[in-house]
Amino acid sequence: MNFKKLITTSLLTMFATQALATSSTTTTPDIQVLGLFKNAAVLNINNQRELVRVGDERNHVRLLAANSEKAMLEIDGKRLIVSMADNQAVRVGLPAATNAQAHLISNGGMFTVTGSINQQLADFVVDTGASYITMNPQHAKRLNLDYSNAQKIMMNTAKGKTTAHVFTVKSVRIGGIELHNVKAAVVHELDSSKMLLGMSFLNQVEMQQKNGLMILRKGS
Question: 22 phi and psi, to 5 degrees?
């Protein structure tokens, strides 16, 4: 689904009709929803991408509330609830796979995101110091990942050297980016509710950071 059409024609028509009825000269901004997060949204307003937090206003568009599924906007005094619906992508408020990009918002200085491994939901934190997508045995069990025949290597961690079980997962999706045959590692000592989104994935995408937002784009 093309997210440029998430603000539907009927809604735009409604605003236009109301504007004509009141003889208002205000032009309704062209809005596209690119990403939804807790208390923030990435909007394309009149062809300008904006990271908008709750309470902020851009070009007569104010964000009143937001989570990963819906956002409430106020446009020239009128309130509108928008959502991102994409049956082909993970429903986490990120672009569709056709966009080949993902938007991650900073959370206490760390970039976290919900994506998928082998089409199973998975929570990640970006870690450029990790060589692989790294998880603990509990993560692997929940995702039904078999690493019994994985290659055993020694890996340096914050707690020192440890044994890691390295294997290949069929697919990893982050937002609109899906990569296949990605190296992953199971580390028993990883004490985290989130998996590490390491360089086996990040080396295959372009990364850009700006104003608390990380944008990942799939390389050509």
Answer: -100, 5
Q: What is the average per-residue pLDDT within 128-150?
A: 95
Helical (H) or strand (E) element with 201 = helix 199-202
CA angle 203, 51, 28 (to 5 degrees): 130
Hey, how many other C-beta atoms are within 10 angstroms of the C-beta on 153?
A: 13
The DSSP annotation for 158-178 comes to: TTEEEEEEEEEEEEEEETTEE
User: Residue 27: its pLDDT value, please?
Assistant: 66
Helical (H) or strand (E) element with 115? strand 110-117
Per-residue model confidence (pLDDT) at position 98 = 47
Of how many residues is the chain composed? 220
CA atoms 38, 35, 174, 6: torsion sign:
positive
Confidence of residue 52 (pLDDT cuts 50, 70, 90): confident
Q: What is the CATH number of the domain that holds 208?
A: 2.40.70.10
* 143 and 208 part of one domain: yes
Q: For 40, what's the count of Cα atoms within 13 Å in the CB-facing half-sphere?
A: 15
Max intra-chain CA distance, the chain: 71
- Write out the residue range of the structural domain in which residue 194 sits: 100-218
12-30 residue pLDDT tens: 434 434 443 443 445 667 7
124 within 8 A of 196, measured Cβ to Cβ: yes
pLDDT bin (cut points 50, 70, 90) of residue 6 is: very low
Global pTM reads: 0.61
